[in-house]
Specification:
Rossmann fold; flat; binds zinc ion; Isoleucyl-tRNA Synthetase, Domain 1; single chain
Length: 492
């Protein structure tokens, strides 16, 4: 089967053919590190991770580069608010980004470049654009001359008048054209700066991604991914800068990941409706959060509501129970050859037979691959997986007696197949321990106990409330009552 990707550039599903045989060069726009990231941001990062894992499953070797934007207006403003330097702020949030994304099972990219460590490359690229006549310096700023690039608008499919409407928001008399965007910004007081041929200043956001993608992946890359909101102007500007500089196509497949929504609105810092990943991880396992975030195909909006993560937690529990049962039943003979399975299908008591279980393994594989080949349809892939999980549960319910060797081998084979495809989606790892799931369960149980104690206090049942507090204290869990709520902590 051939993998097809929806290319935002052509607005069509296209067969995926990388530039070099067997090798994929991929760039994914990463976070601006001025705060923790929320589960809406996580959707984009997680989808890039799943795309990379599936490409590897198909036999490609993938080089993934994900930038961490560590110089930006938001960073400077936040650092000034807090009275610390930009670098102190970004160091903290780079570390928290790595902590949270790794807890979520997002593998590290091959390179995580930061613009502050690529100033010479960025300056060189800007100079190339000036030399080619498509960029112009004015009083220490450098702008890109949008009307010098015929292809401007080809990614976002915008007409010149739409582009103007968008650009009017920022009135700047010094620009030749309102659509022109900054490549280099002269330093204002209390801003970090670097020396450049145009004076002290710092790079614009768009040029960073062009310069770092070129440095670490080369002039033409296979896949460029990012959130839907980055298509314009960020990615449009990346194309304009890169393609004029190299005179080659910049990215061959552009992928844009849709938003996570709450109550029909995009989850965003500006909307104040977000849930930080680190808070979600206090109550839900990484696998449950991943399951939720891939429960819709990436181009479709995904809606978050009160039951989303609970439903995903139940689904992951069902999956883990099934895999545990398969492991127990089939582990002794998992290493046996599958020829035993094929040559001696054996009917057993119950809801299913060996032959039909074998068939359902193949159906699951086919379904999983067909869905993933269809523009990484993770929702379809989960459907194929959980159909087999349900079938296996029925099968095991019907296997009351000690299963035969052939059945055991088949159960081992089922385990291996399920574990492999779940590993591609990152919702199961053979080496995972249940610690994270137990920790989430522990937090939920304590919240429940605190709730029940609050009920007792509300009805002035002080005896029960004190008993709960004292018993928890014996377990080294301390409750602290305030007027309206009770918090708990472990130890003193
Ligand atoms: Zn970018």
């Amino acid at each position: 089967m051939a993998l097809k990707i929806y290319n935002s550039l052509s607005r069509q599903l296209e067969k995926f053919v990388p530039l070099q045989d067997g090798k994929v060069l991929m760039y994914s726009c990463g976070p601006t590190v001025y705060d923790y990231f929320h589960i809406g941001n996580a959707r984009t990062f997680l989808i890039s991770d799943v795309i990379r894992r599936y490409l590897e499953y198909k036999g490609y070797s993938v080089k993934l580069v994900q930038n961490l934007t560590d110089i930006d207006d938001k960073i400077i403003n936040r650092a000034n608010e807090l009275g610390i330097s930009s670098s102190e702020l970004t160091e903290k949030y780079v570390n928290s980004y790595f902590e949270d994304s790794q807890r979520l099972g997002i593998r590290l990219a091959d390179v995580h470049p930061k613009p502050t460590e690529h100033i010479p490359e960025i300056i060189e690229l800007i100079q190339t654009l000036i030399d080619k006549g498509v960029a112009y310096p004015i009083d220490g700023d450098v702008y890109y001359r949008v009307n010098s690039f015929d292809g401007y608008g080809k990614l976002s499919h915008r007409q010149p008048e739409d582009l103007l409407a968008g650009a009017r928001v920022e009135v700047n008399e010094r620009k030749e054209d309102p659509r022109d965007f900054d490549l280099w910004k002269s330093a204002k007081p209390s801003e970090p700066w670097w020396n450049s041929p145009w004076g002290k200043g710092r790079p614009g956001w768009h040029i960073e991604c062009s310069a770092m993608a070129m440095k670490h992946l080369g002039q033409t890359i296979d896949i460029h991914a990012g959130g839907h909101d980055l298509q314009f102007p960020h990615h449009e500007n990346e194309i304009a800068q890169s393609e004029v500089a190299t005179e080659k196509p910049f990215a061959r497949y552009w992928m844009h990941i849709a938003f996570l929504r709450i109550d029909g609105r995009r989850m965003a810092k500006s909307e104040r409706n977000f849930i930080f990943v680190r808070n979600a991880l206090e109550n839900y396992s990484p696998e449950a959060i991943r399951h939720f975030l891939i429960s819709a195909q990436y181009r479709h909006p995904l809606d978050y509501n009160a039951t989303s993560l609970k439903d995903s937690t139940s689904a992951i529990r069902r999956l883990n129970n099934c895999l545990d049962a398969l492991k127990m039943a089939g582990v002794e003979s998992a290493a046996e050859t599958s020829s035993t399975v094929n040559s001696q299908p054996q009917s057993i008591e119950g809801l299913d037979s060996d032959a039909s279980l074998l068939e359902s393994i193949n159906t699951m594989r086919d379904g999983f691959e067909a869905a993933m080949d269809d523009d990484f349809n993770t929702a379809g892939a989960l459907g194929a997986i959980f159909k087999l999980v349900n079938g296996v549960n029925q099968f095991l319910a019907g296997t009351e007696n000690q299963p035969s060797q052939a059945t055991k081998a088949l159960l081992g084979k089922t385990y291996n197949n399920l574990a492999e495809v779940c590993g591609v989606l990152g919702i199961y790892s053979e080496t995972q321990d249940s610690a994270s799931e137990n920790a989430a369960l522990f937090n939920q149980l304590l919240d429940l106990i605190v709730d029940l104690r609050q009920d007792a206090r509300n009805r002035k049942d002080w005896e029960t409330a004190d008993k709960i507090r004292d018993r928890l204290k014996q377990l080294d869990i301390e409750l602290k009552d305030s007027r309206n709520s009770t918090t708990w902590k472990i130890g003193n």
